UniProtKB/TrEMBL annotation:
Residues 5-78 form the YlxR domain. It holds the Pfam family YlxR. Coiled coil: none annotated. This is YlxR family protein.
């Protein structure tokens, strides 16, 4: 069995290895490349389309169950470097 997660951007299910885990630390989104940081995580495809959709729909805020806005600068920079 391969672990399956749902992308918060496009809402499709994919193997965990195909998605990027993101956690919230001090109201900022942090990329968890090794998927080992503590706390609640959200999974998203590592594409600009999925990340933009998740930010636009406030999906990270809901998935991570945080109150208030999140600083998305680090994940946007990560996607630009990969792209």
């Amino acid at each position: 069995m391969v672990p399956v997660r749902t992308c918060v951007g496009c809402r499709t299910r994919a193997p965990r290895s195909a998605l990027l885990r993101v956690v919230s630390i001090d109201s900022a989104l942090v990329v968890d490349e090794r998927a080992s940081l503590p706390g609640r995580g959200a999974w998203v495809h590592e594409t600009p389309e999925c990340v933009d959709a998740a930010i636009r729909r406030r999906a990270f805020v809901r998935a991570l169950r945080v109150s208030g806005p999140l600083d998305t600068q680090t994940i946007e920079e990560h996607i630009q470097r990969k792209g």
